[in-house]
Design brief:
Strand order of the largest sheet: 1-2-3-4-5-6-7-8
Strand content: 15-25%
Largest sheet: 8 strands, parallel, barrel
Number of strands: 8
Structural class: alpha/beta
Length: about 240
């Protein structure tokens, strides 16, 4: 089974916000994405609103109601952001760790240290017909904890794999592929569905996917938007097809 490709459009908003103007327009970007093999749109509404804004979520939600594309709502575990998520019809909410000082998400969520809180936090989201995914490192204890709180999915953080690929570190690549493979198999044995995300590119993805089975979704943003500057959004996405 080939995993679905979901496009994170945060970086389109980052370019727009550099001039605080209307361009590039997120809805126009989504219209271009609809022409491709992509299956969905992903957004991360951060607490500091550094890229996606509240108004963006409302516009994206309204547009996607009449689109074939699914909607994934990435979020930190705060009551404010959860309330916004609950006002959408997102099919999936992915809980991620969030630090104001980080450039991008630097690792998986520590589920173990906050199991009781997270177990209660996700209940209203699931009651709203939105499934819940937890963004975790390929760590078996964190995956077990994700199952224990009744998550539906995990998304395995692939950033370490991507860094080894950039560094051409063959030993590190081999070790991280086995770590991800073991983590995915363990999650699936628990009945969790498995997604992948962070640092994935059209160059590093084939080697990783060749070692994995039954991955549901890929959530990719930076590489696609960066390459779209050079070759266009549709061509950038089709490189993953």
């Amino acid at each position: 089974m080939k995993p679905e490709l979901h496009i994170n459009i945060d970086h389109v908003a980052t370019v727009r916000n550099a001039r605080m103007g209307p361009e590039p327009n997120l809805i126009e970007a989504i219209k271009n994405i609809e022409k491709t093999c992509a299956a969905g749109i992903t957004t991360h509404l951060r607490e500091d609103r550094r890229h996606i804004k509240d108004a963006d979520i409302k516009e994206i939600e309204a547009y996607l109601k009449n689109s074939r594309l699914g909607f994934t709502f990435e979020m930190g575990a705060t009551e404010e952001i959860r309330a916004i998520c609950l006002a959408t019809s997102a099919k999936l909410a992915t809980l991620v760790p969030e630090k104001r000082e980080e450039l991008t998400t630097e690792g998986g969520l520590d589920v173990l240290s906050q199991k009781a809180f997270l177990a209660e936090f996700i209940k209203p989201i699931q009651a709203n017909s939105t499934q819940v995914s937890i963004f975790v490192d390929p760590d078996l204890d964190q995956i077990q904890a994700s199952k224990d709180i009744a998550a539906d999915f995990i998304e395995i953080h692939t950033g370490t794999y991507a860094n080894h690929f950039i560094a051409n570190n063959e030993e590190g690549l081999a070790q991280e592929i086995q770590r991800i493979k073991k983590a995915a198999s363990f999650a699936q044995s628990l009945g969790l569905k498995v997604n992948l995300g962070h640092g994935l590119t059209s160059l590093n993805l084939p080697r990783l996917l060749a070692q994995l089975e039954d991955i549901q979704e890929l959530h990719i943003g930076h590489s696609i938007i960066a390459n779209a500057v050079l070759c266009g959004l549709e061509n950038s996405i089709e490189a993953f097809h």
